[in-house]
Design goal:
230 residues; 8-stranded mixed sheet; single chain; alpha/beta
Length: 230
């Protein structure tokens, strides 16, 4: 996406790769906020079914076509799948805003949730390192479980906050209107180094740790509360 395009605040088209819990919710919210979306899934019929439900602002495509046709791309798939897709579609990811909601989560043989990365490594850092240098990375849309995300849009009287983390000004300028369109107030938690703060398990700005949704004032206080010393 061009620097100019982001600064002008034009409507972006957003590819959403994955139409499950998170991808389906984000797609519904962006369309409700008048944003065009291009949907892709492993089985294109699943993307088509959601596009049919969402109407003229949504269309379905292959993963490659969805990324090519969009300014911003949400990888609403599991982290290992994101890693595979980034390798397969590196060429079309040049210059795109890449939005990563993934958490470093897996399950053991008893169905117990476990962390899949070392404590000091975020999923965001893993994804960002795999992108073409011209891409604009932002961690976002993963700080609430999908059910809470779906129910908390356009909260009254004060909107709930969705945190994001990025080192990239173009990505920040792209994600803020998308978070607003989805029905939330955007707040930057920090740069890429802060991505782990908005992931689970363990991130201090993730709903799983916070225990409740925050409005903008509460969220600003929470961001400054546990800032690492360096
Ligand atoms: N669930 C939550 O509450 C939540 C909250 C925050 C963050 N997250 C993060 O969001 C991500 C998605 O989680 P989820 O719960 O939404 O997963 P999910 O419901 O299992 O949905 C996964 C989606 O990925 C698609 N997919 C799988 N392989 C693919 C491929 N090779 N190419 C294209 N699409 C592919 C699936 O396509 P089909 O529909 O064709 O099977 C499905 O639509 C994860 O990284 C998770 O950590 C989840």
């Amino acid at each position: 996406m061009s620097d100019k395009g982001a600064r002008k605040g034009v409507t972006l088209s957003t590819a959403i790769i994955g139409v499950g819990n998170i991808g389906g919710t984000v797609a519904r919210q962006l369309v409700a906020g008048d944003q065009p979306v291009i949907l892709a899934a492993k089985d294109e019929a699943n993307a088509q079914a959601l596009a049919n439900e969402l109407g003229p602002l949504a269309r379905a495509a292959s993963v490659e076509e969805a990324i090519s046709g969009a300014d911003a791309v949400v990888f609403a798939v599991w982290l290992d799948t994101t890693k595979e897709l980034l390798a397969q579609h590196a060429r079309v990811l040049e210059d795109k805003v890449v939005i990563d909601p993934s958490n470093p989560l897996g399950f053991d043989e008893n169905g117990q949730m476990l962390r899949t990365l070392p404590e000091d490594e975020s999923a965001g850092a893993v994804v960002a390192a795999l992108l073409p240098t011209s891409a604009h990375f932002v961690k976002a849309f993963g700080t609430l479980d999908a059910g809470t995300l779906a129910g908390a849009a356009n909260r009254e009287p004060r909107r709930a906050v969705l945190f994001y983390a990025t080192d990239d000004d173009i990505a920040a300028e792209a994600i803020e209107p998308l978070i607003r369109a989805a029905g939330f107030d955007p707040l930057k938690a920090g740069g890429l180094a802060a991505a782990g703060r908005i992931e689970m398990p363990g991130g201090d700005l993730h709903l799983a740790t916070l225990g409740s949704l925050l409005d903008l004032d509460e969220a600003r206080a929470a961001v400054t509360k546990n800032v690492p010393a360096n």
